[in-house]
């Protein structure tokens, strides 16, 4: 193990930071030209390092699909401004003033804050100010005759929040009014003025809606398959340093170090726009060549400035693999810089491993039977705001995650077969032991053995064994279950499913994992496995969601 940790010391977080600074100069909104330019910057860095790459580009056109996701429009911000009293905000303050994918428009009128449903009755001819559920509220603003739409997010202080509309060409049939975002401090000022006699604002938004724009997919490979694939989404607004210039920049440094170090596996590197890019990538490659995925998202959060913890999101039980076990082992080794009163190692920064959660591109790989794991720093008090700037990042955090990921790749590629098997068995026992300490488990062990069997097939090991059962579900339209995509097929089903999954975010996680489990197990065992993994789940709501997906022909019983 120590030889791989020593080799990982070549990882230089200052290299990552320099690339973060460069990437964060681009306003990397999906459908914009800047996201293409940011990806071209990464390609230029790969050329400097002598690493071969190719573009597998797709398109944004507002009407095609990236598997289950409707493509947003091609879109560019030109300029925008908001004026009231003696104050003026412009896109020179932050491009986030103009909400991503907003139409052009000018308006002047009274601001009406929306706190309750009945407030919409006063929206006609006014400029509405909304603090939650922005995409649905934007539709309501158009329907109720508002002149313009202003959004804010609680907890952002003086920073501009990032809120994207992700409009399609079909949405442009009703989406007509300009949309802006303001810092919470400005929103509070507008709210106070509206209570004391009212406040009038003047809005101007100039944007370009294009017929199409490039959806960049940058793919580099080192060695021969099977590949351990490292991914990072390169989208999000300027500056977007932690989210996710940090992951995109770390991939460059990983490629530099891992070049020439392949063994029983090769290494692949993927820069994509979040979700849309990954789902566009899936049909373009041979998935049988990909062993597993390590997705790097927000890997530079600071414990003091951002209040971040290093999280390791494990693979779902349905896609069990030794990879999160190896990464967890090295994260703890690299992070052990302090000492207890007797000299035992203590963590340098906060770290915790978690069962599978959704929220980034590892999801898509898991859906397609490729185990995906994600190190991430969370929470981040600057998340999705104009304050997510490079100086907030932690070189220590970048170093801990980067060195651990390098060591993981080298260990899986080059460690002796017996050592890899030992670690695989140890992680399997640890994982099952953790579950057993919390609850009685019934099905988990068979899925762990199935995952180890898959590891063995790719890595030439002798651990685990395949499941003897068959699944009961065929997932026909595989990918993120998109409420928006479903609305275009059947508004009634979309509305009912939205009510279920938006009640609690974990219901959505459990629903997707239940589908993955149902590809392997019968109905009863799949639900038992879900409970083994998460404990109590809202079974009735999950099964209602499954019924709706069957009604929508997204899945079908086998």
The CATH topology of the largest domain, please? Aminopeptidase
Ranges where pLDDT stays below 50 over 5 or more residues in a row are none
> Which architecture of the largest domain per CATH?
3-Layer(aba) Sandwich
CATH top level class name of the largest domain: Alpha Beta
**Terminal CA distance:** 45 Å
Helix-strand category: alpha/beta
| Fourth-tier CATH superfamily name of the largest domain | Zn peptidases
> Describe the biggest sheet?
8 strands, mixed
Number of strands: 23
Rg on CA atoms, Å: 24 Å
Strand content: 15-25%
Q: Averaging pLDDT over every residue, what do you get?
A: 97
Mass-distribution shape: globular
- Give the count of helical stretches: 17
Tally of individual domains? 3
Helix content: 25-40%
- In what order do the strands lie side by side in the largest sheet? 1-13-15-14-16-21-17-20
InterPro entries: M28_fam, PA_dom_sf, Peptidase_M28
Protein name: DUF4910 domain-containing protein
GO molecular function: metalloexopeptidase activity
Coiled coil: 483-540
Explain this structure.
- The chain is α/β, with parallel strands linked by helices.
- It has 3 domains: 10-70 and 214-413, Aminopeptidase; 76-209, 3-Layer(bba) Sandwich (Glucose Oxidase, domain 1), CATH 3.50.30.30; 469-557, no CATH class.
- It has 17 helices and 23 strands.
- The protein has helices at 2-8, 13-23, 33-48, 134-143, 184-195, 241-258, 276-281, 323-334, 362-367, 395-414, 417-438, 444-459, 483-489, 491-501, 505-518, 523-534, 539-551; strands spanning 53-55, 58-60, 65-66, 69-70, 74-84, 87-90, 105-114, 127-130, 148-151, 179-181, 200-210, 213-215, 218-222, 227-233, 266-272, 290-295, 309-313, 336-339, 345-347, 351-354, 372-378, 473-475, 555-557.
- An 8-stranded mixed beta sheet has the order 1-13-15-14-16-21-17-20. A 7-stranded mixed beta sheet has the order 6-5-11-7-8-9-10, covered by helices on one side. Strands 2-12 form a two-stranded antiparallel ribbon.
- The radius of gyration is 24 Å and the shape is globular.
- It starts with a helix and ends with a strand.
- Residues 225-407 form the Peptidase M28 domain.
